[in-house]
Amino acid sequence: MALNLHALIRQKRLLLVGGKGGVGKTTLSAALAAHAAQHDRRVLLVSTDPAHSLADAFGRSIGNQPVTVAPNLSVLEIDPDTEVDAYLDRVLAQMRRYAGPDQIHELQRHLRLSSQSPGAQEAALLERLARLMHEGLEEYDLLVFDTAPTGHTLRLLSLPEVMAAWTDGLLRHNKRSEHLGSVLSHLTPSRSVDALTGDPKKHELENLDERSQQLAQTLLDRQRLFHQTRHLLADHDRTGFLFVLTPERLPILETHRAVQSLTDSGIPVSGAVVNRVLPPTTDDDFWAARRERQQKHLDEITQQLGHIPLAYITLQQDDIEGLDALQAFGQQLVRPLSTP
Description:
Strand order of the largest sheet: 3-4-2-5-1-6-7-8
Radius of gyration: 23 Å
Oligomer: single chain
CATH topology of the domain at 5-80 and 127-151 and 241-333: Rossmann fold
Strand content: 5-15%
Helix content: 40-55%
Shape: elongated
CATH superfamily of the domain at 5-80 and 127-151 and 241-333: P-loop containing nucleotide triphosphate hydrolases
Distance between the termini: 13 Å
Largest sheet: 8 strands, mixed
CATH class of the domain at 5-80 and 127-151 and 241-333: Alpha Beta
Number of helices: 13
């Protein structure tokens, strides 16, 4: 089943590109984004790689806010450390409403310590990704995320449930918040509530005092964001996951597991691109042997991943760097090899 990359970037609003490190997913993401921009789609390309690989691909500096690199094409690289600082600043601003003046110093100390705790970067990163998805869809025709989607996606899918459990546990420690707890419990996905909004009845919030209303609204807004993100990621019409792999043993195994995980979670997998396929060789014994070994891996890809659309890209003669090279590579991507 052949993968039509041109149709994919024309039809989808959100495209997440992932794969094992070193298989070429950043270059492919950038080339697809550049190609879509050339065909009059307003594109935002986002990387979550702290190594700033998009800057290397475009051969220019790219920061934590969108920068225009070509007509219709904006690019940004999310800096995890910056996201953690911004995330904790928001938490501190919210907690100032509930903490006394004598508690602020201790609160700041705890937040500084929590910035180094396991999961702090991921929590901040996931919230930024969720907000970028929803805000970006209002401004751009296509969002392309250069990321390893499996772990991020499954965590985004589970966040509404995690938040509901966290909120319940927090409120159990405050007996005076029983009514607030009953309001927030409507956000538990198993309850009869609109999964897209997570809104409780308006009069239930009105029964709370002002401070509790503010706390409830903060939690409601955040939980609603993750509910909407989960819905977006599972939307086959707007969202697609594209895997990149090379015809080697480990990338094949990792991609097979990732595809299975997303499929089991109801997340649309649009296909996979097999990168760095060796061209037909001459009688040189070295390249003939390499080609023979690679063909065994290509056969394995057909066996393991043949149920999803596949595209094959020939090994390039040189590194692809700069806008012109990416645009040229994008033209090649939409005319991929047939099965080798």
